[in-house]
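Researcher: Structure prediction, please.
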Amino acid sequence: MFRHFGRHWGKSQAAAEKLFSARIRGNVGATIPVKIGLTLRNGSPASNATASLALAPVINGLPGSYQPATSKGGANADSLFRSTNDGEYLYNLDTSALAPGTWSLQIKLDDGSEFYEQFTLR
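Model: Predicted structure follows.
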């Protein structure tokens, strides 16, 4: 899963731009790599951003309470994405403690912006 978000430093909201959206399906216990790209208003990569990941089960079409995500093997500390290069960030989501069904991801950026994506586990 890859998302690209335009980032407006100093603003309360960031503009989101979908570059690629794949229907993510996986099996419980699989590691799902969640990748995002962040750019500044001028289009240059945002290399010093902080982004966190939380998830919630989707019940009757609505997300439940969001909880901090857990990474596989502790690859991501404190539910934070890690920078991989030039504005790209990665989170290795551990699904071993999740139930089958639809889940909602919540990505929070340090400027207060929030973005959401759903995925399905079998």
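Model: Confidence is low (pLDDT under 50) at residues 1-23.
Researcher: Thanks, that helps.
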